[in-house]
């Protein structure tokens, strides 16, 4: 189990035991991830092993869904039955993409799945369901806001007022249902605003653009040239959109370069924890579509075969070796009551000195410990926030008024 999976799954279980999100447990994401793991916890009957296996199954299904949606969307755009599967397989250019689901729940997979599903449903003339899926993508991570904007933009471009109303109604309806526990059960609206809106703005990653670029190359390794190739495909799509050319893509496919630009902006300038690769997953979907576009532009069938062969070679190495499937698999033991390893290797503020007695969240998960304080697992972002507002690890989750006063005085 990965540490962040332990956070998602433990919080979901804790909510079924009467815990209140944002009040009894600090968390800078919207509540849908924890409502999802809460449902899984209920299905598991409180069994932590079963909850973990259900989380793994859900993530594995999400990977299959993402790859399938990329294939379908590229085929809808190009009509090319070679380029479409190449685009889908390009999702595995990131070595960890295939194996990460085996380590438990990760919200970014569901963000991508719901976002692509929203576009798919809109193209199939299900605008209300498209709005629901788009809102769900935001519920899993705030950066998914690009997907509601895309489906709304498609409706506006087509001047379809009826579809626009249904998209908005579906999105708002789902948002109301998602936030209902925050208002009616947990009574944590003020704390949610602080953790979901203020915290990401105050604790952003400080790495330079060059450091982020180098980290991306390190994570993709020798599949990096294919990322550049996908970038060329995205550039070709943008050029066809601006010029109105009748080629592999059309004027309604503007969402491809727009979505790619959005996630590139986040990676290079906003939110990219360079020590991990999972922040690259949302943008990877658009890179994969770009690879499919490039394959479509290759009129010579032999060139397509060369591209397919090169991609297959990289994927075999990535999935079989770097992805730790089949050939290499490091045994993982249940961690003891020690701090998470990333707290020991990351440059942190002085607050870290107080966190040495806080056990790894995976230990908390497996031991089914109910936290006695809001800041019970002390992630890297959490420690930065505590240092920013000058709070101790045993303090209560701050409400909006207190947080603003602390930030103003600091």
TrEMBL record:
Keywords: Membrane, Transmembrane, Transmembrane helix
Keyword Transmembrane helix: yes
Pfam families in UniProt: Mannosyl_trans4
Molecular-function annotations in GO: dolichyl-phosphate-mannose-protein mannosyltransferase activity
Parts of the chain that traverse the membrane: 51-76, 82-100, 129-155, 167-189, 222-242, 254-270, 276-295, 307-329
Highest taxon, organism lineage: Archaea
InterPro entries: AglS
Protein name: Glycosyltransferase RgtA/B/C/D-like domain-containing protein
Organism: Haloarcula taiwanensis
